[in-house]
Specification:
- The chain is α+β, with helices and mostly antiparallel strands.
- It has 4 domains: 88 residues, conserved putative lor/sdh protein from methanococcus maripaludis s2 fold (Beta Barrel); 92 residues, Beta Barrel (Elongation Factor Tu (Ef-tu), domain 3); 53 residues, OB fold (Dihydrolipoamide Acetyltransferase, E2P) (Beta Barrel); 62 residues, Helix hairpin bin (Helix Hairpins), CATH 1.10.287.470.
- It has 4 helices and 21 strands.
- The strands form 5 sheets. It has a 6-stranded antiparallel beta barrel.
- β12 and β13 form a beta hairpin.
- α1 packs antiparallel against α4.
Length: 374
């Protein structure tokens, strides 16, 4: 049987346990509420994302095809010797400008001169014989057949004399076209064989570049369209040209067609240079444009603009691409800011701070959240 003393002791223990439990529950509630308020304050006070923007502008844009090709001269010639002989004098070097008919090499003419003298002597003897035979025919001292044979021999001697003079003229090797000496293959003292190339001449008055263009461009590229050329060897310079020819067929294996562009020759452009070619086939005088860097790397074409300090994702319809600028046909208005740097860290509604502008004021929600945390 329990005594009054034992009952009182048990009651005191139970009361103490209840008080301890209540204190622990209150402490836990207080601690949890503080952590939640702190989290809300941290979220509300998150720093704005720094970004760079550029305003949508109006400007002229051109629709163009851009390709690469090496330059070549459409007109050139190899200079060959038409007779054999020792090169007594080489009159030009690589890089020299020459005109058609200008002497380039003098070959030893001694043998050709002797042949001319020999043919001249033979021709003179036959001319005298023919004149005497004409007198003798009149006197019926020789037959008409003999006179005809002498006439034939004289004509043959005259042809041989002309040939000897022509061979003598070949000892002065001349330029077949005007242009620039691009290669010299002989030196003074070399023996030159007949029909052997000894020089190469290129006509730099005209430069061409041939593009292999995808068939989807066949409808828009036409003869006479303006062309701009930039070459790696001449950074910062641009050369104007024209589409000279457009092939009427598409190569089935490559799915491309040939477009030949032409440029006026000058002292800068050289055959073999590698160039980038822009063919402008349409022009918009007053188009809305944005930098290419503003486009998001996503499936849907969109950009981020800034409205009231927040990032807003805007789908856009694009038009022509002109270098680093892209035409925008819908979705934006002139003057709208588009984010060009820092867009990777953005989400719809993210707070942003445009670099170079005044800081965005703290939102009231952030202040309230900090108050709750206290």
């Amino acid at each position: 049987m329990s005594t009054p003393h034992a009952f009182a002791s048990t009651r005191r223990v139970l009361t103490g346990a209840i008080l301890v439990s209540a204190i622990l529950v209150l402490s836990a509630c207080k601690g949890g509420g503080g952590a939640e308020a702190k989290a809300k304050a941290d979220d509300a006070a998150a720093a704005p994302v720094p970004v760079e923007t550029e305003a949508v502008a109006r400007r002229s844009v051109a629709a163009s095809y851009v390709g690469t090709a090496s330059l070549e001269v459409p007109r050139g010639a190899d200079v060959v010797a038409k007779t054999s002989g020792i090169a007594l004098e080489v009159l030009v070097e690589e890089g020299d400008t020459v005109r058609a008919g200008q002497p380039l090499v003098r070959l030893d003419p001694d043998r050709a001169r002797l042949a001319v003298r020999q043919s001249l002597a033979t021709m003179g003897k036959l001319e005298n014989s023919y004149r005497r035979a004409q007198q003798l025919v009149a006197q019926q001292m020789i037959s008409a057949n003999d006179l005809d044979q002498l006439k034939f021999d004289l004509d043959t001697a005259r042809a041989q004399h002309d040939m000897a003079q022509l061979e003598l003229s070949y000892t002065a090797v001349t330029a077949p076209i005007s242009g620039v000496i691009s290669q010299r293959m002989i030196r003074t003292g070399n023996f030159v064989q007949i029909n052997t190339p000894i020089f190469s001449i290129v006509d730099n008055a005209r430069i061409e570049a041939t593009l292999n263009v995808p068939e989807r461009e066949l409808r828009v590229l036409k003869r006479g369209q303006p062309v701009r050329l930039q070459v790696d060897a001449l950074p910062g310079e641009s050369f104007e040209g024209v589409v000279e020819r457009v092939a009427p067929i598409v190569e089935s294996r490559s799915g491309t067609f040939r477009v030949v562009t032409a440029f006026a020759g000058n002292d800068s452009l050289r055959s073999g240079m590698f160039g980038r070619i822009h063919i402008d086939y349409d022009q918009r005088a007053d188009a809305l444009v944005i930098p290419r860097s503003a486009l998001l790397d996503e499936g849907e074409t969109a950009v981020y603009t800034v409205r009231e300090g927040k990032a807003v994702r805007v789908p856009v319809e694009l038009g022509y691409v002109d270098g680093n600028m892209i035409e925008v046909r819908s979705g934006l208005e002139a003057g709208d800011p588009v984010v060009t740097a820092g867009k990777v860290a953005l989400r719809e509604g993210s707070a942003v701070q445009v670099i170079g502008e005044a800081p965005v004021a703290a939102a009231p929600a952030a202040a309230d959240a900090k108050s709750e945390a206290k």
